[in-house]
Design brief:
By secondary structure, the chain is an alpha+beta fold. It has helices at residues 2-6, 9-29, 38-47, 61-86, 177-180, 184-196, 207-227, 229-232, 292-297, 321-328, 382-392, 435-438; strands at residues 88-92, 106-111, 162-166, 172-174, 235-237, 245-252, 257-261, 264-267, 270-271, 279-286, 313-320, 334-339, 363-367, 374-376, 397-399, 405-407, 410-411, 414-416, 421-425, 441-442, 446-456, 476-477. The chain has twelve helices and 22 strands.
């Protein structure tokens, strides 16, 4: 009590400010469990019963300095943890899937309050890491796992938004680093199963017969990966919020029907406007090499067109429609510029356990699940929704020998979804692994939306070299990149 009486007016004002901010925070996140922290805040500011700064009394100067650094680092990590969890985090563009809207080397300020931050799902994790330490090993403890809950944000995901989210197919992965970033199901399990099994004419089969074949592919493929762990690593699992972060553009909302016709996206039958910087692959026949000045005008990086391929002959490069037109007019350099034909069947597309004969340019129609909406289930459409039912909404699902669909052991002819889902695609339409390959993005995987580019580095240039920092992209709004 004496310490309370000795507290200064400045301390009480400081405490009042902290308490008001903290209570407003608890109201926002709707978590009154945080009240247990209030006595510790009161003690740290007023009573000082707990010796928070005990190390300041150390006489050993070396130990005093070490503890000073430890204290500062711990405070910084805790602050970063809460900022990254509830407010914003940095995200660096690792691939070309959104070029030329966003470039490799763009560092984004990702707002989590835009759609509302998720409450911690895997609370025991090291700040500034997603799932592994730089030197290897998991940077999080798998238990406890808390249920998904989102704090109220300023808005919701809209068509055209660029969204950062956790990779849905990243729930299961191979631990060998060179394979860990791939789609476990679409890149390994089913392809391995198909390759190891005798080819069958699956198109002529009934849906039940097709189901049995694909279930066998899955079994054979998974057994093959497990038996070759020295090459592929162990089969591992990651919680929702510890899966890799991806960034794509939302092109389909819950409850909508999406279709792609000749590269044009249709939503509920209405053609959608393409992003300004959307690009496709073009087959160009070169008469002469593209000079550096024109290459720069076309925004062709050396990854798009290596120097060894910039010579007479046919080569495939990504271009926007506008830049393809510019190149086509260079009659002394090219003889033809034609959009690459992807009309052949692509067996890598979602769903990988059903023969649709869709392509990346002609896909669908497919209905995007919405919270509270129901779908009539059949063996014909089950492959589209079983991953959402099993892996995202965590129900058991099996198909009996006679074709009956059992959900949680109960025969079911329909299913009502408990979450909203989204369809995400890259603007680099022919060079983007997106929802066309791994399907819907559940709402509990949504991280946030990038607001602006705070740093942009050209990976093709070294530090100190002119142009390494793309100054024209610094602090540029992401929306202005579309």
């Amino acid at each position: 009590m004496r310490k309370i009486k000795e507290a200064t007016k400045k301390q009480w004002i400081y405490l009042a400010i902290i308490m008001v901010l903290y209570i407003l925070f608890l109201i926002w996140v709707r978590s009154w469990l945080g009240i247990i922290i209030i006595p510790f805040i009161f003690d740290a500011v007023i009573t000082r019963i707990i010796p928070w700064d005990w190390w300041k009394k150390l006489k050993n100067k070396a130990l005093y300095q070490i503890m000073g650094w430890v204290d500062a680092i711990v405070f910084a990590l805790v602050a970063v943890y809460f900022v990254n969890l509830f407010l914003f985090q940095n995200y660096a563009i690792p691939s070309s899937s959104l070029e030329k809207s966003l470039l490799i080397g763009d560092h984004l300020y990702v707002s989590k309050v835009a759609y509302g931050p998720r409450k911690p799902m895997t609370p025991l994790t090291m700040p500034l890491t997603q799932n592994v330490f730089p030197w290897g090993g998991k940077s999080y403890i798998e238990k406890p796992q808390w249920e998904y809950e989102r704090v109220k944000g300023f808005g919701k995901v809209e068509t055209g938004d660029i969204v950062v989210f956790n990779f849905p197919s990243g729930d299961t992965l191979l631990t060998t680093p060179q394979y860990s970033g791939f789609d476990y199901y679409g890149s390994f399990v089913y392809p391995a199963g198909r390759e190891l099994c005798k080819e069958v004419q699956i198109d002529s089969m009934s849906p039940l017969e097709q189901r049995k074949v694909y279930d066998f592919y899955y079994k054979v493929g998974r057994e093959y990966l497990a038996a070759n762990s020295r090459q592929f690593g162990e089969i591992d699992y990651r919680p929702v919020d510890r899966r890799e972060n991806y960034v794509k553009r939302c092109v389909g909302l819950p409850g909508q029907t999406l279709e792609i016709r000749n590269g044009v996206i249709f939503i509920d039958g209405q053609a959608q406007q393409q992003p300004k910087e959307a690009q496709w692959n073009y087959d160009i026949t070169l008469i002469n090499p593209i000079p550096d000045k024109l290459r720069k005008e076309l925004d062709l990086s050396f990854a798009d067109l290596p120097a060894s391929m910039n010579r007479p002959g046919t080569v495939t490069v990504p271009l926007t429609e506008e830049r393809a037109g510019v190149l086509a007019n260079e009659k002394m350099i090219v003889s033809s510029v034609i959009r690459h034909d992807y009309s052949s069947d692509d067996t890598w597309l979602f769903p990988v356990n059903k023969p649709t004969h869709w392509t990346i340019d002609d896909y669908g129609p497919i209905w995007i699940p919405a919270k509270g909406a129901s779908v009539e289930l059949s063996l014909e459409n089950l492959p589209f929704y079983e991953r959402a039912i099993k892996n995202y909404e965590l129900h058991s699902l099996e198909v009996t020998a006679d074709g009956t669909i059992l959900i949680d052991g109960i025969a079911s002819t329909s299913y009502t979804f408990s979450m909203d889902y989204y369809w995400m695609m890259g603007d680099n339409r022919h060079n983007s692994a997106d929802s066309r390959f791994w399907g819907f993005v559940p709402e509990d995987h949504i991280v946030g939306t990038p607001r602006f580019i705070w740093l942009s580095l050209d990976k093709e240039k070294k530090f100190g070299q002119k142009g390494k920092i793309r100054w024209n992209r610094e602090f540029r709004k992401v929306s202005s990149c579309n």
